[in-house]
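can u pls check wat happens w/ flavin mononucleotide
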Amino acid sequence: MMRTAHLIYFSPTGTSKIISTGIARGLAAKNITHYDLTRPNPSFELVLTDGVAIIATPVYAGRVPELFLQRFQGITSKGMPAILVVLYGNREFEDALVELRDVSIVKGFNVIAAGAFIGEHSYSTRARPIAVGRPNAEDLKLAARFGKQGAAKIERNDFNLPGIDGNVPYKKRIQLGGVAPETDDSKCTLCGRCAAVCPAGIIAVSNSVKTYADSCIMCCACIKECDFEARTFNHPQIEEKRVMLQKNCSTPKAPAIYL
Ligand SMILES: Cc1cc2nc3c(=O)[nH]c(=O)nc-3n(C[C@H](O)[C@H](O)[C@H](O)COP(=O)(O)O)c2cc1C
C-alpha cells in the first residue's frame, strides 16, 4: 500500500481538486496531504521525499495557469513518482499536460502517469451551460481506476515516462485580465466570500465591492461562490466565447489517460 499521497492542486472552481481526490482514493494511500495552491496565501516551501504526488491544475487557453506555475515553484522533490492531471472545460487541453509534465520534471518529480479530465467550464452559466455536471460519476470511476493503475505501476517499479499528447513549443500564452466579473449592488450582501475565494486577491470588500480587473485571471470562482448571484461575467468577450463553446464543444468528451 502507498503510504502518503501528496495532493498538489490549483483549483479555483474545484474540479481539479475533485478529480485529484478521486485519483488519490484509487491509490488507496494511507495518508493524504493537501497542498492547495489556489489562494494567494499560504505559499509552500518544501521538499517532498516520501510517497506519491498527484499534481492537478485547470487548462487555461491550452496552457497551465501562470498562478499555478508561480505557486508550484516552492515545491520540489527528489525523484518522487508523480501522477499529473489537467481539467478542461470540454474544448481541448492542447499543450497544458506536456507543459505540466515539463515543469514537474524540472521540480524533481518522476512523472509516471498523466490524465486530462473534463470539468464544468468556468464560463458556464445556467443560461449557457457548458460541460455542466462534469466531473460526473463515470469520470470519478475513471479517476479511481487511474489511481489504481498508477499505484500498480509504481508497485512493479515501472517509473517510465508515458507519451503525452501536446506540442513543444507550447501554444502562445494568452494574456488574461483587463475585464473581470462585476457585482450587482442590489443583490450583494457584502459578505466578502467573493474576495475570500479569489485566487488573484483582486477583490476588496468594504461598503462596496471593488474588483481590480487588470490582474483578474477570469477563473469565475467569485461567481460560483456567490449564493446571491450578485457576481456575473457578461462582458461581450466572454459571452462570445460561451456561444462558441456551446456551438462547437457540446458533445461530451472522455478523459484521456497516459500510463
Ligand atoms: C481563463 C480560462 C481559460 C480556459 N481555457 C480552457 C481551454 O483552453 N480549454 C478548455 O477546454 N477549457 C478551458 N477553460 C475551462 C477550465 O479549464 C475548466 O472549467 C476547469 O474544469 C476548471 O478547473 P477548476 O474547477 O479546478 O478551477 C478555461 C477557463 C478559464 C477561466
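Residues 137-155 form the longest helix (19 residues).
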